[in-house]
Write a structure and sequence with these properties.
Helix content is about 50%, strand content about 15%. The protein has about 375 residues and is of the alpha+beta class. The chain has 3 domains: about 5-120, Acyl-CoA dehydrogenase/oxidase, N-terminal domain (Butyryl-Coa Dehydrogenase, subunit A, domain 1), CATH 1.10.540; about 120-215, Butyryl-CoA Dehydrogenase, subunit A, domain 2, CATH 2.40.110; about 225-380, Butyryl-CoA Dehydrogenase, subunit A, domain 3 (Up-down Bundle). The strands form 2 sheets. Strands 1, 2, 3, 4, 5, 6 and 7 form a 7-stranded mixed β-sheet that branches. Strand 4 and strand 5 (about 175-180) form a beta hairpin. Helix 7 (about 225-255) runs antiparallel to helix 10 (about 345-355) and helix 9 packs antiparallel against helix 11. The longest helix has about 35 residues, at about 225-255. The protein is globular and about 75 Å long. It starts with 6 loop residues before the first helix and ends with a helix. The relative contact order is 0.11.
Amino acid sequence: MDFSLDEDLVSLADLARTIFDDLATTDRVREVETSQTRIDAPLWGALGEAGLIGLPVPEEHDGAGLGLDALCVVLEEQGRHVAPVPLWSAGVAALVLARFGTGQQRADLLPDLASGASRTTLALEEYDGAEPSAPLATARKEGDGWRVTGTKAVVPSLTGADHVLVSATAEAGPGLFLVALDGAGAGDGVSSTLSETTSWDLAGELVLDDAPATAVGTPGDRALAVTLRTAAIALAALQVGVADGAMRLAASYLSEREQFGRPLGTFQAVQHQLADCFIDIDAMRVTLWQALVADADDPLGAEPGGVAERAALVAKWWCDKGGLDVVHRTQHVHGGIGVDTDYPVHRHFLLGKQVSATLGGEHAALASLGDLIATTEVAS
């Protein structure tokens, strides 16, 4: 299978790289880490002006209509620069609304999401070991709308979001619900508490108490499953960039730093460490693009437990495990400077660790893949 990028994706990658090179400098990232929101607003605005936020939004709603693969190309560049913008959560939310939202939801939300003027985030995780695919939060029908009750954990980049897509279980089964926020993580029946994550992001604990909501898709359909699949792929793309950026920093450092009169990069033990990193990143990228090809073949999840779902879990497992291994190795070969917060490689380690734990991490992905294979094989 040929995973070479076509000309459009190569151009997108080049554009994204230029913007991140110019605006996501080490000094700027350090400055945003101590800001009130932890989000680089000028960088977010530049991405919106360049049309990179609206890549998965259909053209009729002012987006580019290029889908998940285009978003993932930009996410990889973001990961390379550890740029502090909420691209993965906002991009997945926009794509899900484009695929499953009602005509009214798409018309009302997607144009502003495409420009970056508005932002929707995701509330897909909970406490007590709850499986993302079987949320403990509940939804009940009320007239033409819904009411959602429950507590959601680690809602990414909650500050400044105008809406949140919440996973909850209704009588008909798990579903996805759109809840309005006031930009500060609150709203009617909604309260939140912000906490600093491993990667310096401010994530929120979202408490919903009979909060008014509208359904995205129909409870019990494939909207939540596809959202989780899409989020896993987006996180895998981000992790590929994080790992690749860390490896490049290590290669540059080791080619310049000398010990015993020789560059550290000439020592065989160090070369083997980076060779392992290269192999892991290559495997991560292959599984990512396998998942993207499978997603394009079944965007609405018409085949439960099929190729697309399996491929996304494989990519998630590889990128959780391989990505974490790479950021550990690259920090290790830097020696003492690897833990110096004035040197940028520690940011790759922190973001890689954060991504690898999102939606359950490598062990959860592997367990879900095993359950999926066992269930579908028995059924067939």
